[in-house]
């Protein structure tokens, strides 16, 4: 039972570099999310997807792009990393909206990104 | 603006010392309120969903309750393994399933 898998788990970037975080889920969930977690700020939604081929902006989308080409994968990209993007990034998935369990998110273990 | 406030920020208990964590919320139509547990270096883990005022859910030493303005997570006779950060989140009616999280309460239970 893999659940939600994030890669890489740790990464150090220099300002201006680009990178992609990969999230994979094996639960056939429709909804997928990318959050960032910073000390004293709580979890904040970056982007989300309500199904294959769809994406939408969350609370803090600037500086990030996402793609959902396959139902099981959700990619988060940083085109030009900035020190303000130093954070722990969590991917999550949930069942299709309309059911009673869309708020029951399954989270990955996180990807710790440092931008120097 | 939809908002979730958790208190206290941190709570230190002795093993067996019962207490409660608070989650106050303002939301334009509540679809659901959720409690999660997060261990250091891990992702949050779902605990409970509450949908309407008066509802209660229990799991081992944890009991979650809901009113129209707030939710409580009661911890009865806690053990050291209950030490974690507890997160509260709300889902508003009309949202696309998105949750608004509080900043969490860090619970430490000493033996």
Structural class of chain A: mainly beta
Order of helices and strands of chain B: EEEEEEEEEEE
Query: How far do the termini of chain A sit from each other?
Result: 35 Å
- Strand portion of chain A: over 45%
User: Which two protein chains have the largest interface (Cβ within 8 Å of the partner's Cβ), and how many residues from each?
Assistant: A-B, 28 and 23 residues
- Sketch the major β-sheet of chain A: 7 strands, mixed
Number of separate helices of chain B: 0
Instruction: Let me know the average pLDDT of chain A.
Output: 92
Write down how many β-strands of chain A occur, each being a DSSP E stretch of 2 or more residues.
Answer: 11
Roughly how many Å apart are the termini of chain B? Answer: 41 Å
Oligomer: heterodimer
Tell the overall outline of chain A. Answer: globular
Rg on CA atoms of chain A, Å: 13 Å
Name the shape of chain B in a single word.
globular
What is the string of helix and strand elements of chain A? Answer: EEEEEEEEEEE
**Counted beta strands of chain B:** 11
Question: What this model shows, in words?
Answer:
The complex is a heterodimer of chains A (116) and B (111). With 116 residues, chain A is an all-beta fold. Chain A has strands at 4-7, 10-13, 19-25, 31-38, 42-49, 56-57, 65-67, 73-78, 87-94, 106-107, 111-115. In chain A, the strands form 2 sheets. In chain A, strands 2, 4, 5, 6, 9, 10 and 11 form a 7-stranded mixed β-sheet that branches. The radius of gyration of chain A is 13 Å and the shape is globular. The termini of chain A are far apart. By secondary structure, chain B is an all-beta fold. Helices cover 0% and strands 59% of the residues of chain B. In chain B, strand 7 and strand 8 form a beta hairpin. Chain B is globular, with a radius of gyration of 13 Å. The interface between A and B is medium-sized, with 28 and 23 residues.
């Amino acid at each position: 039972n893999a659940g939600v898998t994030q890669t890489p788990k740790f990464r150090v970037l220099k300002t201006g570099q680009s990178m992609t975080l990969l999230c994979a889920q094996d639960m056939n969930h429709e909804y997928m999310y990318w959050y960032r977690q910073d000390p004293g700020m709580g979890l904040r939604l970056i982007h989300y997807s309500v199904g294959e081929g769809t994406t939408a902006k969350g609370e803090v989308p600037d500086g990030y792009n996402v793609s959902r080409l396959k139902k099981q994968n959700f990619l988060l990209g940083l085109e030009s990393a900035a020190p303000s993007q130093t954070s722990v990034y969590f991917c999550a998935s949930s069942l299709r909206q309309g059911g009673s369990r869309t708020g029951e998110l399954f989270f990955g273990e996180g990807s710790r990104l440092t931008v120097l | 603006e939809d908002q979730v406030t958790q208190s206290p920020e941190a709570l230190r208990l002795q093993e067996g010392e019962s207490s409660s964590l608070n989650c106050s919320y303002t939301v334009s139509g509540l679809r659901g309120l959720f409690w999660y547990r997060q261990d250091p270096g891990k992702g949050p883990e779902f605990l409970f969903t509450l949908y309407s005022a008066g509802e209660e859910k229990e799991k081992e030493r944890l009991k979650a309750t809901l009113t129209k303005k707030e939710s409580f997570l009661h911890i009865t006779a806690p053990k050291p393994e209950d030490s974690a950060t507890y997160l509260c989140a709300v889902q508003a009616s009309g949202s696309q399933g998105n949750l608004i999280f509080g900043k969490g309460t860090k619970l430490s239970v000493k033996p």
